[in-house]
Amino acid sequence: MEPQHSVDIDVDIDWPVAEQRVLRYGYFGRGVSMMFCKVSGCLTDGKVFLSVSGEDSVSIHTRDTAGLRMLQKVDVKVVLLISKEDLLMKSLIPKLEKMTGCEVMMVGEEPLKDVQSVVEKNKLDWKDVAYMGNEAADASCLKLAGLSAVPAETLRPTLLKLPSTPARTPAGGGGQ
């Protein structure tokens, strides 16, 4: 996507920029009905905080959760993805569901195998799906999605070659 056809809307002041670009260049986008977003590495910054009492914790920015709620308000179904091997995130599924209002789904080493069935179940084409991932295993979903995105710090060559929109901020940064 050409830079003049996109804008990252993080704060209220970004809206006039978006409106001007639509007026000048027209609207080239299409809406999505469903978004899949990896939690580890996209909503979190990859850090695990350890305490003396033995508690592990991760951090998700409130701007990210606000953005997820905005998508839900415009009828975009948001599904958060957690790796089956990520024991800490597995233990946080109920909290994630409550905090975000999103369905949380566990995926294996090849997320496409798990995600494809959800796309088919909802009778969607991949052009109606957004996908945000950060690992080489996400490449197949990123290629298929009508809108794909990766965190700003993604350095994996396989992901950088894909037609995806890099975020302006690092994972877990709340789209500052």
From TrEMBL:
Keywords, in A-Z order: Nucleotidyltransferase, Transferase
Domain of life: Eukaryota
Entry keyword Nucleotidyltransferase: yes
Identification of the protein by name: Uncharacterized protein
Protein's organism: Characodon lateralis
